[in-house]
Amino acid sequence: QFHGRGRYTYMSGETYEGEYFQDRAEGQGTYEWPNGETYAGSFLNGRRHGFGVQMFANGERYEGFWKDGVASGKGRHFWPNGDRYRGEFKDGKRHGIGTFFYADGRRHFGKFVNDEKAKPPPFPQNYNPLPDDGLPFTWRMTKEHPDIEQERDMIAGNVDQSGRLLSKDGPFPLSADDFLVDGMMANGRSEIE
């Protein structure tokens, strides 16, 4: 029975080197596959669990949290072409809030569902944006602000040239924790898909 540190090579050619507890990989260790893939990080009950880094045979890399052997929680995924993703994972897929950075400099921030960018919900028929805003998204306040009585007090989606949010009375300071944007902002313009 393995207990403590050790190295084991399986009949399949896979190897594990690291900490054991009652014959199972538990604690910190490194697992290697014959195809060149490696995982270095935390194990629990013989499975990847906790923080770890997986290097894939195709050149991709995942750094982040694992649960029961699959990527789950916060993490980062890198592709050989320069694309990368930073955000939430569930069951080994991009799932939750995250940012996809394209190699050409574009980026997409938003919700991902089962590895796909989630489409924003359609606006209701009675949606009545402020006059002349012309932008297909709204600000939803997640904190109360004494200067804003209701959502319509905001000029939906307008920013000045420095990227500051504008209210009906001029620049309005907010942090990213104060609001959610349905859609995407980049250089003062929306990028809805």
From TrEMBL:
InterPro entries for the chain: MORN
UniProtKB keywords: Repeat
UniProt feature coiled coil, ranges: none
SMART domains: MORN
Highest taxon listed in the record's lineage: Eukaryota
Pfam families for the chain: MORN (PF02493)
GO annotations of cellular component type: cytosol
PANTHER family to which the protein is assigned, alphabetical: RADIAL SPOKE HEAD 1 HOMOLOG
Protein name in UniProt: MORN repeat-containing protein 5
Organism ancestry: Eukaryota, Cryptophyceae, Pyrenomonadales, Geminigeraceae, Hanusia
